[in-house]
Amino acid sequence: MDVTTCRLDGPADFFSIGQFVSGPGWRHARRVIDTFELVFVRRGVLPMRVGERELTIGANQLALLPTGVEHAGSRAITEPLDFYWMHFRLPEGSSDMHVGDADDAVKLPQSGDSLILPHWCRAADPDRLAVMCGQLIDLYARFGPHANTYCDYFLTCLLLEVTAQTRVLVAGMTESAADRDGRGADAAGAAKRYVMGVDTGGGVGGFRPDGHTVRIGGANVAVEGHRPVGLGPMLSVRSWIMANAFDDITVAKVAERFHYSPSYLTTVYKRAFGIGVNDQIVECRVDRARELLSSTPSPVADIAREVGYDDPKYFMRVFKRRTGLTPGQYRDAFPTRLYNTV
């Protein structure tokens, strides 16, 4: 995994943020900018070319677009797309490094006043990032577009959250570095798919600002034929739940997917995260519903279907049980947000 790191002697320099929503046919413009751009896709696929590198940013994936390097859409999108974008400058002294195994990981800054921003990876906790992006959009709408300290510091908090999630991914990579060779190519391939959140047997590449292809290392994930141990396998289960929570999934289907019995999976999962598998599914759905209620004008019934509930009345009961508010009351509590669409 390639990352950009820097020490925080002060806040990052915030420029702008937005939420982009489009139907099929749109293509990202070609441009070179003098700020970093962090892209966080929530729905659909964003095909990009960054320098000479082709990059496909999928749902719940992050990409850091470097300064001074041309980036553009590599093709028109073919399905609905929803992503957050933000422009900023980092304090002086930022640098790039590659993290692939335990030896590389020890080179990461260990102090709490450092940023570690992945060039391309799957977010460890995408819903948490989505909430923070929405909050920064609200602040920008209220205090922007001029520069202000409030947005600078909140952006810095968001980048520190990305840093914390990157450390989780790196910990998963290095946890299995010692035994990856003994487990073989299948394990290494599964590890790559886990970190990037994609399914590709040929491995996954990141990018450097000069456009060169790089490879990421392994992670501690559940691999068929090996009894998983520790937090790593449950992180994989949680990532899969977050990616598929809006489909017709149940505890039994999740357990079957990862070759556990439902009762055993629930016990181990709750021990790891303090929440059961079914509650995790519901939490993902309600969090996404809250995001849609506060950022789109979509009818409640449409939002219910989008987050996995065919019965809008049942969705409203679940939502109120979780939040204490009806969907309508929750929507009324938020000011209208600004977001661009085509």
From TrEMBL:
InterPro entries named in the record: AraC-bd, AraC_XylS_family_regulators, Homeodomain-like_sf, HTH-like, HTH_AraC, HTH_AraC-typ_CS, Tscrpt_reg_AraC-type_HTH
The HTH araC/xylS-type domain, residue ranges: 235-333
Any one Pfam family match given in the protein's UniProt record, by short name: AraC_binding
MF (Gene Ontology): DNA-binding transcription factor activity; sequence-specific DNA binding
Alphabetized UniProt keyword annotations: Activator, DNA-binding, Transcription, Transcription regulation
SMART domains to which the protein is assigned, alphabetical: HTH_ARAC
Name of the protein: AraC/XylS-type transcriptional regulator
